[in-house]
Design a protein that fits this description.
Blueprint lengths: L1 H20 L7 H14 L1 H21 L4 H5 L2 H12 L1 H4 L4 H26 L7 H16 L17 H16 L1 H22 L5 H22 L5 H19 L14 H15 L3 H4 L2 H13 L5 E5 L29 H6 L1 H20 L4 H11 L3 E6 L5 H5 L4 E3 L2 E8 L5 E2 L21 E5 L8 H13 L2 E5 L6 H11 L5 E5 L12 E4 L2 H11 L6 H4 L1
Parallel strand pairs: 1-2, 1-7, 2-3, 7-8, 8-9
Antiparallel strand pairs: 4-5, 4-6
Helix pairs in contact: 1-2, 1-3, 1-5, 2-3, 2-9, 3-5, 3-7, 5-7, 5-8, 7-8, 9-10, 10-11, 11-12, 11-13, 12-13, 15-22, 18-22, 20-21
Length: 548
C-alpha cells in the first residue's frame, strides 16, 4: 500500500509541476519549478492562485472531468487552471473571501475544457489554454458587472524593477534546457520585436509593450519548433508565420470594435499558433500533430543519412484506389476450390489454366482503371527527396510505378505482364478470352504463358528477392504499410531489418501477424492519410492533387 501511495504521489507531483511547465510550452518537472519561480518573482499572489488551480486540476481532472491518463500526466489538464490562477492573483490578494470565487472559476474552467478540446481537436488544432482564457474573460465580465476591478496585475513585486528580468531569465533557462536552438531564436526574435516596438511606437519598454514581445512573439516562435513540431522541418516555417500572425493580431486587437474593451491576454498567441499550423500543415494537420506520426517522421528523417527507409507495402495501400486484396478471393469463381488456382494446378491441366486466366483478367480490368491514391503519391515524392530508399510491394497493380516511384521491387509480380514459363520472355496480354480456346503459348519458344503474378505455391523470382533482401539489409528504417505480414517473404524482410535493430514503423488498420516490439511504432490509420502527413512533416512538397 505504501508503494502505491508513493507512486501516486510522485505521479501527481510531476503532473502538477508539468502543468506550470506547459505555460511556457515546456514539459518537465524542472521546467515547472522555473516557471513557478518566474511567476512568484512577479506576483506571489498570482503564483499562489496558480498553485490552487493546478492542485484542483490534478485532484479532480481524471475523476470528475474525464481527462485522459496521458493529458493528466503531462499536466495539460492543469495548464488551463494555472493560467487562470495567474490572472486571479490580484483578486486573491484582496482576502480569503475571494478564494471561494477562485474555486468556482477553476471548476468552470475544468468543466469547459472537455467540450472545447473536443471541438478544437475535430478542427485539427491543439487546445492550448483556450478554456483558461475564456474563463478569465468571464471572470473579468463578472467583476465588471459587480463594479469591481479584477486587477489582473497585482502591484506586489518583491524584486521591484528587477522582477521582470529575473522572471524572463528563469523561463529562458527552461527554454534552453528543452530546445537550445529554438530558445536562441526566440531570444533574438523577442529582442528584435522589443527594439522595433520602442523605435516605431516611440515609447520606452513597458508592461503593454511586453505583451507584444514577451507574451506574444516569443512564445509564438518557441512553441512550434520546440513543442508542436519538434525536430521537424516545417516547425521553423510555422514559427515565423506564428510570430507574424500573433504580432499582427496583438497590434490590431485594440482597433477592432467591441474587442477594444477586452484585454487580448493570450488570444493573439493562440490565434497565431492555430493560423500557422493551418497554413503549414493544411488538411493533414490533425494527423501531423499526432505523436505517433511525428515520431515516425523523425525516425524516417534520421534514417535518411544511414541508408534511407525501406517501404514494404501490402493490399492496404491500394484499397483507397478501389482495388481489394488480390489474395482475398474477390477475383475467384464461387465454389471453385482455392487449390485449382495454385501453380501446380496451372501446370497440370487446361481447365485450371482457364480459371487462373479468368481471375487474372478480372483483376487486370480493375487495376487498369485504378489511379494512384495520395499514399502512393506521397511515397513517390519521399523517394525523390531521398527519404525512401526503395519500395518493396506485395501488390501486383503497378500503382507505385504509376505514382512515380522508380525503385520498386514487386514480390508477387505485376498483373500487366505475361511471362513464358519456358524461356522467361515477357509478352503482351493475349486477346480477350483467347485462353478459353487454348492455353496461350509463347510466340518465341511455344512454352506455356502465364500472367506475371505469383500463383499460390509458386516461388518468388530470385532477382526480385535478392534486390528486396539487399535493401532490407542496408536500410536505416523500415516502414510497413497496409500489410499484416502474414506472408513469409514479407515477414522475412522485416526480420532481416530487425536483426540490425533498425526502427520499424507500421501503418495498418488490421492486426499484425508478427510480434510488435516495444520500440516499434504502430499507427492505426489509413495509409492514404498517414503517408501524406509524413511527407508534410518531412518538408516534402506534395503534388497539388494531394495537397488540396
Amino acid at each position: 500500500m505504501a508503494d502505491v501511495i508513493d507512486r501516486h504521489w510522485r505521479e501527481a507531483s510531476a503532473a502538477w509541476l508539468k502543468g506550470f511547465a506547459q505555460v511556457a510550452f515546456l514539459d518537465q518537472p524542472l521546467h515547472g519549478l522555473l516557471v513557478i519561480a518566474a511567476i512568484a518573482v512577479l506576483s506571489p499572489w498570482s503564483a499562489a492562485a496558480a498553485a490552487i488551480g493546478a492542485t484542483l486540476a490534478i485532484l479532480l481532472g481524471r475523476r470528475f472531468f474525464a481527462q485522459s491518463e496521458w493529458e493528466w500526466k503531462e499536466g495539460l489538464g492543469a495548464y488551463d487552471c494555472v493560467l487562470l490562477g495567474m490572472a486571479w492573483g490580484g483578486a486573491l490578494s484582496r482576502g480569503a473571501s475571494m478564494t471561494f470565487l477562485l474555486f468556482l472559476a477553476i471548476l468552470a474552467c475544468l468543466a469547459m475544457r472537455g467540450p472545447l478540446v473536443r471541438r478544437l481537436v475535430s478542427l485539427g488544432l491543439p487546445a492550448l489554454a483556450l478554456p483558461g482564457l475564456v474563463t478569465t474573460w468571464l471572470s473579468l465580465s463578472v467583476f465588471s458587472a459587480l463594479g469591481s476591478d479584477f486587477w489582473l496585475t497585482p502591484s506586489i513585486n518583491p524584486f521591484g524593477v528587477a522582477g521582470p528580468a529575473v522572471a524572463i531569465a528563469a523561463v529562458a533557462i527552461g527554454m534552453f534546457l528543452k530546445h537550445p536552438r529554438a530558445a536562441a531564436v526566440t531570444a533574438a526574435a523577442a529582442a528584435l520585436t522589443a527594439f522595433l516596438y520602442v523605435l516605431l511606437a516611440g515609447e520606452a519598454l513597458s508592461i503593454r509593450g511586453a505583451g507584444l514581445w514577451a507574451f506574444t512573439v516569443a512564445p509564438a516562435v518557441f512553441a512550434l519548433p520546440a513543442a508542436f513540431l519538434r525536430g521537424l522541418r516545417p516547425g521553423w516555417r510555422a514559427a515565423s508565420m506564428s510570430a507574424l500572425l500573433s504580432a499582427a493580431v496583438w497590434l490590431i486587437w485594440p482597433r477592432i470594435p467591441l474587442l477594444d474593451q477586452v484585454p487580448p491576454l493570450m488570444a493573439p498567441l493562440f490565434i497565431g499558433i492555430w493560423g500557422a499550423l493551418a497554413l503549414t500543415l493544411g488538411k493533414d494537420r490533425l494527423l501531423c500533430l499526432d505523436h505517433g506520426v511525428q515520431h515516425a517522421a523523425r525516425l524516417i528523417g534520421g534514417a535518411r543519412a544511414s541508408g534511407g527507409t525501406l517501404v514494404l507495402t501490402g493490399a492496404g495501400i491500394s484499397t483507397a484506389s478501389g482495388i481489394p486484396d488480390y489474395t482475398a478471393g474477390h477475383w475467384l469463381s464461387p465454389g471453385v476450390p482455392l487449390s485449382r488456382y495454385g501453380f501446380e494446378a496451372f501446370l497440370a491441366d487446361a481447365e485450371s489454366r482457364t480459371l487462373y486466366w479468368d481471375a487474372c483478367a478480372h483483376f487486370h480490368a480493375v487495376a487498369a482503371s485504378a489511379q494512384p491514391n495520395p499514399g502512393h503519391l506521397a511515397l513517390a515524392v519521399l523517394e525523390a527527396s531521398g527519404y525512401v530508399s526503395a519500395t518493396i510491394t506485395q501488390n501486383v497493380d503497378g500503382l507505385h510505378q504509376a505514382a512515380g516511384s522508380r525503385h520498386v521491387g514487386e514480390l508477387h509480380g505485376n498483373i500487366f505482364g505475361v511471362r513464358c514459363l519456358a524461356c522467361d520472355q515477357m509478352v503482351d496480354w493475349p486477346a480477350a478470352d483467347a485462353w478459353r480456346q487454348a492455353s496461350p503459348s509463347c510466340p518465341a519458344c511455344g512454352g506455356l504463358l502465364k500472367p506475371a503474378v505469383i500463383a499460390f505455391g509458386e516461388g518468388i523470382r530470385l532477382a526480385t528477392w535478392h534486390m528486396a533482401d539487399s535493401e532490407a539489409q542496408g536500410c536505416g528504417a523500415m516502414l510497413v504499410v497496409g500489410s499484416q505480414l502474414a506472408v513469409s517473404s514479407a515477414s522475412a524482410l522485416l526480420a532481416s531489418a530487425r536483426a540490425r535493430s533498425v526502427p520499424c514503423i507500421f501503418v495498418t488498420l488490421g492486426a499484425l501477424a508478427v510480434p510488435v516490439f516495444p520500440n516499434d511504432t504502430v499507427i492505426v490509420c489509413q495509409a492514404e492519410r498517414v503517408l501524406p502527413a509524413l511527407a508534410r512533416l518531412l518538408g516534402v512538397r506534395l503534388p497539388a492533387a494531394v495537397a488540396r
